[in-house]
From TrEMBL:
SUPFAM superfamilies: beta-carbonic anhydrase, cab. Binds 1 zinc ion per subunit. It comes from Testicularia cyperi. Its cofactor is Zn(2+). Keywords: Lyase, Metal-binding, Zinc. GO terms for biological process: cellular response to carbon dioxide; cellular response to oxidative stress. InterPro entries: Carbonic_anhydrase (IPR001765), Carbonic_anhydrase_sf (IPR036874). Reversible hydration of carbon dioxide. This is Carbonic anhydrase. Pfam families: Pro_CA. Coiled coil: none annotated.
Length: 216
């Protein structure tokens, strides 16, 4: 497995190759960034967005957390969305769930055995997973008898749907879709389309969940 010393060694080799083969891009990135996609993904180490999408530095603006949640009480998530839409002028937001997600599995377990208040009070991770656990509870309720990967797949989809809905309910997106001038750029920005995706780790493939929403 890679160690800290490897980071410097590998970066030195990568930087030499990158600046030699893509000097114009390297010079551009030193001045600015112009991504068209905001990626809201999971912190899982198996889903490095630039790698799995064969993207260049500067192509994708990114925020990641446990189980790719977009909570409306999360200032970090809202700040990323605001900057991406109102300053960078991104055109697409992708919420990306994935198979074999530890957060999904924890939420399913929590749906069957909810954590005690004392545990929630002492654990930021459990508090972060409360909305996802509620989603899992609803999926279990409406799909009695479903277990294993089939249950997890439905929870992943329901969670991605919820995050897409949460994003679309923000004032940032409502203003964008209404053509309101951005307070950060002083311009009317590109109208954003929001997508729901799932990454299948075993197949190394992105799947469109057909949850796309765009300006009415």
């Amino acid at each position: 497995m890679i160690q800290v010393a490897d980071l410097f060694h590998n970066n030195k080799n990568w930087a030499k190759d990158f600046t030699a083969t893509k000097p114009e891009l390297a010079a551009h990135l030193a001045k600015t960034q112009t991504p068209k996609i905001l990626w809201i993904g999971c912190s899982d180490s198996r889903i490095p967005e630039s790698t799995i999408c064969n993207a260049n530095p500067g192509d994708i603006f990114v925020t990641r957390n446990i189980a790719n949640q977009f909570r409306l009480d999360d200032d970090n998530a809202l700040s990323v969305l605001t900057f991406a839409v109102q300053a960078l002028g991104i055109e697409h937001i992708v919420v990306v769930g994935h198979t074999s997600c530890g957060g999904i599995n924890a939420a399913i377990a929590g749906a069957a055995n909810p954590p005690a208040k004392e545990a929630l009070d002492s654990s930021p991770l459990l508090r972060h997973l409360v909305p996802l656990t509620q989603i899992a509870q609803e999926v279990v309720k409406t799909n009695p008898g479903l277990q294993g990967s089939e249950l997890a797949e439905k929870v992943v989809r329901a969670s991605v749907q919820t995050q897409v809905d949460n994003i679309c309910s923000t004032e940032v997106i409502k203003d964008n879709w209404s053509g309101v001038t951005s307070p950060l750029s002083g311009k009317v920005m590109n109208k954003v389309t929001v997508h729901g995706l799932c990454y299948d780790i075993a197949k190394a493939q992105l799947i469109d969940l057909d949850l796309t929403k765009q300006a009415p």
